[in-house]
Input
Amino acid sequence: MKGILGLTIILTLAWLPTTGADLTLTGSTTVFPIIQAAAEEFMAKHPEVDITVRGGGSGVGIAALIDGICDIAMASRPMKTKEIKRARADGINPCETVIARDGLVIVVHPANPITSISTETLREIYTGKINSWKDVGGEGGTIVVISRDVASGTFEVFKKMVLKGKRVRADALMLASNKAVAQTVAQTPGAIGYIGLGYLSPHLKALKVDGVMPDAETISSGKYRLARPLFLYTNGKPRGLAKRFIDFILSPSGQKIVKETGYLPVR
Amino acid sequence: MARIVVIAVVSTRLLLAGLAPGESNIGAYTWFRYTAEMETDELRESRFGLERGYLRWNHRFTDRIDSRVNVDIYSTDKYPAGAGLKLKYGYLNFKGLIRDAKLTIGLQKSYFGLIYDWKYPTIQKCLEDKEKVIASADYGISLNGNIPKGYGEYAIQVVNGEGYKKYKSLVNLAPALLVNLRVIPIPGITIGGSALFERSGPEYDRRLLHAGIARVVIGPLTIWAEYLGAELGPEGNTTRGSGFMVMPALRLRELTGIDIDLIARLDRWDEDVEEIGDASIRATGGFNWHLLRGKKGKIGVVLQVNWVRTIYEDPDQGPEDAVMAQLRWEFVTKPL
Output
């Protein structure tokens, strides 16, 4: 009996996460590239500091902040009322910092002849009313619909802005990260997906939405409507190392990283 | 009978899910428990049992309409039948009528005191459930929602009042009105109150239940407190019951790196404050060892160990002790 108990304790201790990081950030895979790059540069300037960055989605990051598992939550959507309520009940006072702006980019395989799409057509594709590329001016073939999963802030923003609250079709492929969506669309000729601006690459073709191509100018000016701010959430106003890191992201060096990773600076 | 009801509900649910648009997820909760009970230091019972299991099915028809069906399953020698199942929840939510609120219709939670969001930090039920002051679920309609900016929540509910296990002659003609309010004035402090009023019942004339709750979180320390009052019978001939619960819990994860919570709890319940000898005090000590956290920090696999001592006001009744160790595991599928 003692042996079993001992083994259980050892296995459990071995499983426990032991990052030993000075600062842990968890959440949105859209925000992830900015923070990853910023953390690398910050740690290069301050070798004594250890920063861990994890994805998982905005919902996971916010839950981790409430549970005290991370210091900063990364989110590509604002916190919901029930999340704020849960946080406050548990003694967490969520404090929001906008670090960048992003556009939701609608992407297809580079071989797809389509160049533009309307919000209404997108809605019809994602809710299952349109199934063939022929119906949207393409060369035919089944549309392979790629979406983010429900823990994703990108998904929630897309659902609100494009689907107007309607449900994604049942046969859509729900993927856990922007990277997974980008890779799948790049490898699937009939696919359509949506990603954060920072994940756009030559392996993907961005579509104009309602006649506007997403880029720094159209997103900043508001002409491209599928745009959103990107957030960091802390418990109370940032203090200590969290404050130093967030100040760095908002500094000219940090905002340069924002731009280099494909997003739009806010300062 | 219970099986027929469950089979009928689940079959209907399957049919609806097959026909209706939307998405479903399924969850399962299983509580496997060892219990040793002693009365005045003499072992009275020692048993293993699957004390509780739930199958939960959520289905979202649209963003504004969703539903939940929970089937409660148990298999234990504690009951003559040895095993059983019953429907715990079966309701539809209609959202969007009022901002951040939903209208819930069906067999649903009782929005009273701590009973509706009791996550079993101790193996025992919360005070009002344990002392059978109110059932954890009931048939009815409720409007429940969040106060803007995370400042709390509210509920107004009309239910049978007798709870989900009562039916036919045990359910009266007068529904019960229930109101609940919780406020979070500053992060870490929650205060609230609930009241249930029923004009008459099969086992009483006039029933008024009231509860006040407080929850304080200071770093890894959380303290729950609840006051509970019950008045049964007409004015001038009222039986008054009262009690309280205090429960501090210390989260050791940040301090030790091991995901364990230490829990202590003290309950007192006096069914009739004017009668001597019917009160009891229950002291609980134990821990919850989270072997695996579920998604978003929810329970995955947890080992709960509790020691409970019950002391009775009646001098003829000796103290009772119970040691319980429970392995509890829960999971929810991704949307299907």
The mean pLDDT of chain B is 88.
